[in-house]
């Protein structure tokens, strides 16, 4: 029998959190779902934990880490349900998490491609972690509501894009978009998917009743590699998706964002390596860009309004002053 939902959990050395995540899934009030765990070459006992805490789950085991995007794509391809939920291994969904997401999707219009959960801080559930993602013209992908009181986010509303750490998608939407772009490997691939869907006319909603506790960076990469991937992926995200006229119109903001993070990361060599890492994927970027622009369903004015005009981070001069004081 085909389940209504498939929950896909990508795992990489997740022994510290995986058991709690799987046990929280087993306690869900909504029962019509299957679980697919994709292990990205873990070297701890993550696979044994899957067998122990979710023996009914399908385990896809790889010998090396192919990245978040490839892992969730494998789970999506192996699923047979109409809905696909993505869940990070360092989360604990509340008992009614999946029920509330499914109800919201069942009641949504067909142009709603995905739903965002209310992600709460594992350390302090009264504090919001992510209530949907946003993107600014400086290239900053931000967690909506991060660090604020969770009670500030009690209303269902349209958002720019869901965080794939705890989201529900229509499988037809994922198939139409071709899934997550595996060239991203990790970081910003969910924002890229969200933006591509937006450009095709899809919308996304935030579901405040779908609560998930989130540890955050449970499978984080070494810092230098994180900076390289984030720098590269930010460039890919913008150049791949945005119309040329808007890239030129907002060139100042885009350049400001690149300079900002070059200073903010305080790892200039890793950031420069990220820029150079764009070169090998330029053919892919060009192919994708042609396909995205040929399927654009929005006007330039509508695309322009998708991105926030300003970012929420401290201004560059304040960042530079703090950096200089630390150097002294």
Describe this structure in words.
With 328 residues, this protein is of the alpha/beta class. It folds into 2 domains: 5-214, Spore Coat Polysaccharide Biosynthesis Protein SpsA, Chain A, CATH 3.90.550.10; 223-327, no CATH class. It has helices at 15-26, 46-53, 68-78, 97-106, 171-177, 189-199, 223-241, 244-249, 251-264, 268-276, 282-294, 300-306, 316-327, and strands at residues 5-11, 33-40, 58-62, 83-87, 91-93, 112-121, 128-130, 133-135, 141-143, 157-159, 166-170, 203-214. The strands form 2 sheets. Strands 1, 2, 3, 4, 5, 6, 7, 10, 11 and 12 form a 10-stranded mixed β-sheet that branches. Strands 8-9 form a two-stranded antiparallel sheet. A hairpin with a 6-residue loop joins strand 6 (112-121) and strand 7. Helix 1 (15-26) runs parallel beside helix 2 (46-53), helix 7 packs across helix 10 and helix 7 (223-241) packs parallel to helix 11. The radius of gyration is 19 Å and the shape is globular. The termini are far apart. The mean pLDDT is 93.
């Amino acid at each position: 029998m085909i389940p209504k939902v498939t929950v896909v959990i990508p795992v990489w050395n997740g022994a510290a959190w995986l058991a709690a995540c799987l046990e929280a899934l087993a306690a869900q009030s909504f029962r019509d779902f299957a679980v697919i765990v994709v292990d990205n070459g873990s070297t701890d006992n993550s696979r044994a934990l899957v067998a122990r805490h979710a023996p009914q789950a399908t385990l896809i085991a790889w010998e090396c880490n192919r990245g978040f995007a490839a892992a969730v794509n494998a789970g999506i391809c192996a699923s047979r349900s109409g809905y696909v939920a993505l869940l990070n291994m360092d989360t604990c969904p509340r008992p009614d998490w999946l029920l509330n997401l499914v109800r919201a999707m069942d009641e949504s219009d067909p142009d709603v491609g995905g739903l965002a959960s209310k992600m709460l801080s594992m350390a302090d559930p009264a504090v919001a972690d992510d209530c949907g993602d946003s993107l600014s013209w400086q290239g900053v992908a931000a967690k909506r509501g991060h660090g604020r009181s969770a009670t500030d986010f009690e209303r269902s509303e349209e958002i720019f894009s869901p965080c794939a750490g705890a989201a529900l998608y229509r499988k037809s939407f994922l198939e139409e978009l071709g899934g997550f772009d595996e060239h991203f490997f990790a970081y910003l691939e969910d924002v890229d998917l969200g933006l591509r869907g937006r450009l095709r006319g899809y919308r996304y909603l935030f579901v405040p009743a779908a609560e998930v506790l989130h540890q955050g960076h449970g499978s984080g990469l070494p810092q230098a590699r994180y900076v390289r991937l984030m720098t590269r992926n930010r460039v890919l995200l913008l150049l791949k998706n945005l119309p040329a006229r808007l890239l030129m119109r907002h060139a100042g903001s885009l350049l400001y964002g690149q300079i900002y993070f070059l200073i903010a990361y305080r790892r200039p060599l890793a950031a420069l390596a990220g820029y150079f890492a764009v070169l090998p994927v330029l053919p892919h970027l060009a192919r994708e860009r042609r396909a995205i622009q040929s399927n654009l369903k929005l006007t330039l004015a509508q695309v322009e309004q998708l991105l926030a005009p300003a970012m929420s981070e401290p201004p560059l001069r304040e960042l530079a002053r703090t950096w200089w004081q630390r150097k002294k």
